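Deviations from the work plan: none for this task. Representative record:
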Amino acid sequence: MKRILFIFLIFNFHYNYIFSQCCGGHSPIGGNTNQGTLPKYTLQINSFYKHAYSAGYMENDHNSDFKFVENANNNFLGLQVGYGITKRFTAEVEAGYYINRTQNFKLNDTKYILEGKGGSSATFTGRYNIYKDSIKDFEFTMGLGVRLPWSKIPQVIDGVELAQDVQPSNGGYGLSLQSFLFKEFDDAEINIFMINALIINTENTKKYREGNSFITGLFFSKTFKKISAIAQVRNELRTYAYRYGLRVNSSGGYRLLFVPQISYTVKQKYNLAFLYELPIYQYYNGIQIRDRYAFSVNLNFRLGLSKKANQLCEK
Amino acid sequence: MKRLLILIFVLGLFAFACKKENSKPSNDGAKLFTFNQLKADKDSLKQGDVTSIRAQITGEGSFAWSCTSGDIFGTGNTVLFGAGSCCAGNHEIICTVKDKNDNSEAKSIFIYVY
């Protein structure tokens, strides 16, 4: 029972954008998801909202007095639909939409705002449970995802093409390889969960290629009836971006984040979660705008599409 | 299962939906402008600085701006171009003027950001 509840929690893990680009707002996400597989014939819908804020500049791991963008923020909505096709295989599709992706400037004593909004990308993922030992409470799952850009044409506002950092869609394709490791310690009533992901990006029509990302998230959870506390420590490494085949020196870097999360589950069907992303350590190649904080609200719903699956969900 | 397949199909339609290309009307109208010049105050910039770029036309037309990298601020015939820490290098700034008869002409300049 406890196990089912835990598996149903949403482990927020963001695939697609994660890291800010060289000069622009802390970008969201491709999705927040339970990275394991779903029970057969079970449909899971996960919607989420994320706000992120960046301000000031950093050079490597210290503050920089460089000035250009005053601050940047974005508000993002995501929807993810997953379905357990077989006992071991889950298919997922997720899509994201930027309500705004904004950079504020003060240039020659005049304030300027650059703002994009619109669809971000759609990601199709297949996840296969390779190993599961119910007695030892251990499982291992791997996944492969393909990300399609919402648009390959850069967004134009009032006759001006927006800069890469405020474009809602990066215009490139992506491939993600994921692994998911779960271990439950019955005696201590603690669950540990590890997610690894490699995200490879392709060049867009502007000959710009975002750096590839390597991400590891380690989750610890403790459940108290309907409420669960989850602590996540996430490591993100992003390689340099390339423009016209030339390396963008102020791009990519390394971040270590602490992400506390509170989840509330009702009837093992609905789950509401709030989480806050706090950078612990950041190292930026060159000079880049600094990610300050981000928070997300997630609403998750699970439904069995067959009698058996329903019984499983309600158990 | 059937409901799921329908759901996947509908989501797939959204994901793969293509934008209809705007069909270009035939260019049978007279050109209503002459694009005289595209000029920037500076041809090289320090990262974090901006420069003004002006498109000079005779006649009537609307202005569209794009660049290979960097930021463009403002609209109309005069804009600011700037580049942050991301954008060292030589960047092309393109201005396209279009009239109501759908005639268009583009000019570009290069600004070096160091």
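Helices of chain B lie at 2-16.
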